[in-house]
Design goal:
Blueprint (H helix, E strand, L loop, with lengths): L17 H38 L6 E4 L4 E7 L3 E7 L2 E6 L3 E5 L1 H12 L3 H8 L1
Antiparallel strand pairs: 1-2, 1-5, 2-3, 3-4
Amino acid sequence: MAQRTRVSPALVPPGSDLHAVLALILMTAILAVAFWAMIIRPQQQHRQAHQDFVAGLSSGDQIESFSGIRGTVVEVGEDSIRLEIAPGVVVDMAKLAVSSRLDKAEDSVQTKISSVPTDADNQGDEQ
């Protein structure tokens, strides 16, 4: 039986293992496409959907900002909106700071949640 000698990788001339190099390039390309499809593209779609939403804002819309400020849109400008957060209190806000539009169904759900008795309310009845 012939004994096989191992050759040090440093002694192998570059390009002699073409299959390994092609496999490495192919795997890198596959990972780059997967990264784009799973991370970059969904983020681009989300950003575009938010820009379309902000472009559709109009006076009278009930909105909430990313910081949690809720109010009614009074005026829509090119890059900003004027938001009434309390009767007679109007603030200027960047359009891109708007996170969502509130509708009447959401307000009624909040009212229902706040009217549900808690355990603290029931403890007074037991004594």
